[in-house]
Amino acid sequence: AQKVTQAQTEISVVEKEDVTLDCVYETRDTTYYLFWYKQPPSGELVFLIRRNSFDEQNEISGRYSWNFQKSTSSFNFTITASQVVDSAVYFCALRRIGDSGYALNFGKGTSLLVTP
Amino acid sequence: DTEVTQTPKHLVMGMTNKKSLKCEQHMGHRAMYWYKQKAKKPPELMFVYSYEKLSINESVPSRFSPECPNSSLLNLHLHALQPEDSALYLCASSQPPGTQVTGELFFGEGSRLTVL
Protein backbone atom coordinates (compact mmCIF):
# COMPACT_ATOMS: atom_id res chain seq x y z
CA ALA A 1 0.00 0.00 0.00
CA GLN A 2 1.11 3.54 -0.64
CA LYS A 3 0.49 6.47 1.68
CA VAL A 4 1.48 10.12 1.72
CA THR A 5 1.30 12.16 4.90
CA GLN A 6 1.32 15.93 5.02
CA ALA A 7 1.08 16.63 8.71
CA GLN A 8 0.72 20.39 8.34
CA THR A 9 -2.89 21.22 7.51
CA GLU A 10 -2.49 24.99 7.39
CA ILE A 11 0.49 27.31 7.55
CA SER A 12 0.38 31.08 7.75
CA VAL A 13 3.48 33.21 7.18
CA VAL A 14 4.25 36.82 6.52
CA GLU A 15 5.66 37.76 3.16
CA LYS A 16 9.43 37.25 2.77
CA GLU A 17 9.55 34.53 5.41
CA ASP A 18 10.89 31.11 4.43
CA VAL A 19 8.50 28.20 4.81
CA THR A 20 8.94 24.43 4.60
CA LEU A 21 6.14 22.05 3.74
CA ASP A 22 6.66 18.52 5.00
CA CYS A 23 5.87 15.31 3.15
CA VAL A 24 6.42 11.78 4.43
CA TYR A 25 5.55 8.76 2.34
CA GLU A 26 5.18 5.00 2.69
CA THR A 27 5.58 2.48 -0.09
CA ARG A 28 6.77 -1.09 -0.55
CA ASP A 29 7.93 -0.32 -4.07
CA THR A 30 11.64 0.10 -4.67
CA THR A 31 11.09 2.48 -7.55
CA TYR A 32 8.51 5.24 -7.57
CA TYR A 33 7.89 8.88 -8.41
CA LEU A 34 7.28 11.70 -5.98
CA PHE A 35 5.59 14.95 -6.95
CA TRP A 36 4.59 18.31 -5.63
CA TYR A 37 1.55 20.10 -7.03
CA LYS A 38 0.23 23.58 -6.29
CA GLN A 39 -3.51 24.30 -6.31
CA PRO A 40 -4.37 28.01 -6.28
CA PRO A 41 -7.94 29.14 -5.63
CA SER A 42 -8.69 28.86 -9.36
CA GLY A 43 -8.64 25.08 -8.94
CA GLU A 44 -6.05 23.88 -11.42
CA LEU A 45 -3.40 21.55 -10.08
CA VAL A 46 -0.07 22.92 -11.23
CA PHE A 47 2.82 20.50 -11.49
CA LEU A 48 5.91 21.77 -9.64
CA ILE A 49 8.40 18.93 -9.51
CA ARG A 50 8.92 15.21 -10.05
CA ARG A 51 11.59 13.16 -8.33
CA ASN A 52 12.46 9.55 -9.17
CA SER A 53 13.23 7.27 -6.26
CA PHE A 54 16.67 6.48 -7.62
CA ASP A 55 17.65 10.13 -7.86
CA GLU A 56 18.20 11.66 -4.44
CA GLN A 57 19.69 14.87 -5.69
CA ASN A 58 18.04 17.91 -4.18
CA GLU A 59 16.74 20.52 -6.53
CA ILE A 60 16.43 24.27 -6.54
CA SER A 61 14.25 26.25 -8.89
CA GLY A 62 14.27 29.95 -8.15
CA ARG A 63 12.71 30.42 -4.72
CA TYR A 64 11.64 26.78 -4.55
CA SER A 65 13.78 23.93 -3.29
CA TRP A 66 13.12 20.30 -2.56
CA ASN A 67 14.89 17.99 -0.13
CA PHE A 68 14.46 14.28 -0.89
CA GLN A 69 15.68 11.95 1.86
CA LYS A 70 15.06 8.32 1.04
CA SER A 71 16.41 7.23 4.43
CA THR A 72 13.59 9.05 6.21
CA SER A 73 11.01 8.69 3.40
CA SER A 74 10.61 12.42 3.20
CA PHE A 75 10.29 14.86 0.33
CA ASN A 76 10.09 18.34 1.82
CA PHE A 77 9.44 21.55 -0.07
CA THR A 78 10.87 24.93 0.93
CA ILE A 79 9.79 28.31 -0.38
CA THR A 80 12.36 31.01 0.25
CA ALA A 81 11.26 34.63 0.65
CA SER A 82 7.59 33.75 0.31
CA GLN A 83 5.23 35.96 -1.67
CA VAL A 84 1.48 36.49 -1.56
CA VAL A 85 1.18 34.65 -4.88
CA ASP A 86 2.49 31.53 -3.16
CA SER A 87 -0.80 31.27 -1.24
CA ALA A 88 -2.34 27.98 -2.33
CA VAL A 89 -2.88 24.41 -1.30
CA TYR A 90 0.17 22.26 -1.92
CA PHE A 91 -0.11 18.52 -2.47
CA CYS A 92 2.62 15.93 -2.25
CA ALA A 93 1.91 12.79 -4.27
CA LEU A 94 3.38 9.35 -4.93
CA ARG A 95 3.11 7.21 -8.03
CA ARG A 96 4.38 3.77 -8.96
CA ILE A 97 6.78 3.34 -11.84
CA GLY A 98 5.65 0.62 -14.19
CA ASP A 99 2.59 -0.78 -15.85
CA SER A 100 0.35 -0.53 -12.80
CA GLY A 101 1.39 3.00 -11.96
CA TYR A 102 -1.62 4.97 -13.06
CA ALA A 103 -2.89 6.55 -9.89
CA LEU A 104 -1.38 9.47 -8.07
CA ASN A 105 -1.67 8.94 -4.32
CA PHE A 106 -2.09 12.40 -2.85
CA GLY A 107 -1.43 13.61 0.64
CA LYS A 108 -4.20 15.64 2.27
CA GLY A 109 -2.55 18.89 1.29
CA THR A 110 -1.11 21.85 3.14
CA SER A 111 -2.88 25.17 2.82
CA LEU A 112 -0.34 27.99 2.76
CA LEU A 113 -1.40 31.56 3.40
CA VAL A 114 1.13 34.30 2.81
CA THR A 115 0.08 37.69 4.12
CA PRO A 116 1.60 41.04 3.18
CA ASP B 1 -1.85 28.43 -19.67
CA THR B 2 -2.98 24.89 -19.04
CA GLU B 3 -2.70 22.45 -21.92
CA VAL B 4 -5.66 20.46 -20.64
CA THR B 5 -8.90 22.29 -21.34
CA GLN B 6 -12.11 21.54 -19.49
CA THR B 7 -15.60 22.78 -20.22
CA PRO B 8 -17.77 24.04 -18.73
CA LYS B 9 -15.94 25.72 -15.86
CA HIS B 10 -19.13 25.87 -13.81
CA LEU B 11 -22.24 23.73 -14.04
CA VAL B 12 -25.44 23.77 -12.01
CA MET B 13 -27.86 20.93 -12.56
CA GLY B 14 -30.91 19.38 -11.02
CA MET B 15 -31.08 15.79 -9.93
CA THR B 16 -33.09 14.78 -12.99
CA ASN B 17 -30.87 16.50 -15.55
CA LYS B 18 -28.42 14.94 -17.98
CA LYS B 19 -25.25 16.89 -18.61
CA SER B 20 -21.69 16.25 -19.76
CA LEU B 21 -18.26 17.49 -18.79
CA LYS B 22 -15.66 17.71 -21.53
CA CYS B 23 -11.90 17.56 -21.51
CA GLU B 24 -9.39 18.03 -24.32
CA GLN B 25 -5.62 17.76 -24.49
CA HIS B 26 -3.20 18.19 -27.38
CA MET B 27 -0.01 16.99 -25.77
CA GLY B 28 -0.16 13.58 -27.46
CA HIS B 29 -0.80 11.86 -24.16
CA ARG B 30 -2.45 8.44 -24.33
CA ALA B 31 -3.72 8.26 -20.75
CA MET B 32 -6.52 10.46 -19.50
CA TYR B 33 -8.07 10.67 -16.05
CA TRP B 34 -11.10 11.94 -14.19
CA TYR B 35 -10.64 13.01 -10.59
CA LYS B 36 -13.24 14.27 -8.13
CA GLN B 37 -12.28 16.78 -5.47
CA LYS B 38 -14.43 17.87 -2.56
CA ALA B 39 -13.66 21.05 -0.66
CA LYS B 40 -10.53 20.89 1.49
CA LYS B 41 -9.79 17.33 0.34
CA PRO B 42 -7.26 15.86 -2.08
CA PRO B 43 -8.38 14.74 -5.52
CA GLU B 44 -9.80 11.22 -5.71
CA LEU B 45 -9.33 9.09 -8.79
CA MET B 46 -12.53 8.09 -10.60
CA PHE B 47 -11.57 6.72 -14.03
CA VAL B 48 -8.51 6.15 -16.18
CA TYR B 49 -8.43 5.65 -19.93
CA SER B 50 -5.31 4.29 -21.54
CA TYR B 51 -5.09 4.17 -25.33
CA GLU B 52 -8.79 5.08 -25.43
CA LYS B 53 -9.78 2.03 -23.37
CA LEU B 54 -11.15 2.17 -19.85
CA SER B 55 -8.37 0.87 -17.59
CA ILE B 56 -9.52 1.84 -14.15
CA ASN B 57 -12.95 2.45 -12.64
CA GLU B 58 -12.62 3.17 -8.95
CA SER B 59 -16.07 1.75 -8.13
CA VAL B 60 -17.75 4.93 -9.29
CA PRO B 61 -21.60 4.91 -9.30
CA SER B 62 -23.17 4.33 -12.69
CA ARG B 63 -24.71 7.80 -12.69
CA PHE B 64 -21.23 8.85 -13.84
CA SER B 65 -20.44 7.51 -17.30
CA PRO B 66 -17.06 8.21 -18.91
CA GLU B 67 -16.34 8.21 -22.60
CA CYS B 68 -13.13 8.58 -24.59
CA PRO B 69 -14.06 9.25 -28.24
CA ASN B 70 -10.44 9.66 -29.33
CA SER B 71 -6.97 10.14 -27.91
CA SER B 72 -7.50 13.87 -27.33
CA LEU B 73 -10.98 13.92 -25.83
CA LEU B 74 -12.49 12.69 -22.60
CA ASN B 75 -16.10 13.14 -21.54
CA LEU B 76 -17.95 12.51 -18.32
CA HIS B 77 -21.68 12.04 -18.74
CA LEU B 78 -23.79 12.87 -15.72
CA HIS B 79 -27.30 11.60 -15.04
CA ALA B 80 -29.50 11.53 -11.96
CA LEU B 81 -26.83 12.97 -9.72
CA GLN B 82 -27.21 13.60 -6.02
CA PRO B 83 -26.39 16.80 -4.11
CA GLU B 84 -23.41 15.03 -2.54
CA ASP B 85 -21.91 14.73 -6.03
CA SER B 86 -21.31 18.47 -5.98
CA ALA B 87 -17.54 18.89 -6.32
CA LEU B 88 -14.69 20.02 -8.55
CA TYR B 89 -14.14 17.52 -11.35
CA LEU B 90 -10.59 17.51 -12.65
CA CYS B 91 -9.37 16.03 -15.88
CA ALA B 92 -5.74 15.07 -16.32
CA SER B 93 -3.52 13.50 -18.93
CA SER B 94 -0.14 11.80 -19.08
CA GLN B 95 1.75 9.24 -21.01
CA PRO B 96 0.66 5.77 -19.95
CA PRO B 97 2.69 4.05 -17.25
CA GLY B 98 5.24 1.56 -18.47
CA THR B 99 6.33 3.82 -21.31
CA GLN B 100 9.52 5.84 -21.25
CA VAL B 101 7.92 8.84 -19.65
CA THR B 102 8.46 11.48 -17.03
CA GLY B 103 5.49 10.44 -14.96
CA GLU B 104 3.67 13.65 -14.14
CA LEU B 105 0.00 14.22 -14.75
CA PHE B 106 -1.13 17.49 -16.28
CA PHE B 107 -4.40 18.78 -14.94
CA GLY B 108 -7.05 21.07 -16.29
CA GLU B 109 -8.65 23.87 -14.28
CA GLY B 110 -11.61 21.69 -13.43
CA SER B 111 -15.37 21.88 -13.79
CA ARG B 112 -17.12 23.00 -10.64
CA LEU B 113 -20.39 21.10 -10.40
CA THR B 114 -23.32 21.97 -8.19
CA VAL B 115 -26.23 19.56 -7.96
CA LEU B 116 -29.45 21.04 -6.60
Structural write-up:
The complex is a heterodimer of chains A (116) and B (116). Chain A is mainly beta and 116 residues long. Chain A is 0% helix and 53% strand. Chain A is built from no helices and twelve strands. In chain A, the strands form three sheets. In chain A, strands 2, 5, 6, 10, 11 and 12 form a six-stranded mixed β-sheet that branches. A four-stranded antiparallel β-sheet of chain A has the order 3-9-8-7, with no helix packed on it. In chain A, a hairpin with an 8-residue loop joins β10 (88-96) and β11 (105-106). Chain A is globular and about 45 Å long. In chain A, 32% of the residues are buried. The model of chain A has no long low-confidence stretch (mean pLDDT 92). With 116 residues, chain B is an all-beta fold. Chain B is 0% helix and 55% strand. In chain B, the strands form two sheets. In chain B, strands 2, 4, 5, 6, 9, 10 and 11 form a seven-stranded mixed β-sheet that branches. A four-stranded antiparallel β-sheet of chain B has the order 1-3-8-7, with no helix packed on it. The radius of gyration of chain B is 14 Å and the shape is globular. The A-B interface holds A 33, 35, 37, 42-47, 50, 52, 91, 95-104, 106-109, 111 and B 2, 31, 33, 40-43, 45, 48, 50, 55-56, 88, 90, 92, 96-98, 102-110, 112.
Secondary-structure element order of chain A, N to C: EEEEEEEEEEEE
Rg of chain A, Cα atoms, Å: 14 Å
* Mean of residue pLDDT values of chain A: 92
SSE succession of chain B? EEEEEEEEEEE
Major sheet size, sense and barrel closure of chain A: 6 strands, mixed
- Helix/strand-derived class of chain A? mainly beta
* Inertia-based shape of chain B: globular
Cα-atom Rg of chain B, whole angstroms?
14 Å
Low-confidence stretches of chain B: none
Helix content of chain A: under 10%
Question: How much of the polypeptide of chain A forms β-strand, as a percent range?
Answer: over 45%
Q: Could you tell me the number of beta strands of chain B?
A: 11
Q: What is the number of helices of chain B?
A: 0
Give unreliable regions of chain A as ranges: none
Number of helices of chain A: 0
The largest inter-chain interface, given as chain pair and residues per side, is: A-B, 27 and 28 residues
Number of strands of chain A: 12
Quote the distance from N terminus to C terminus of chain A. 41 Å
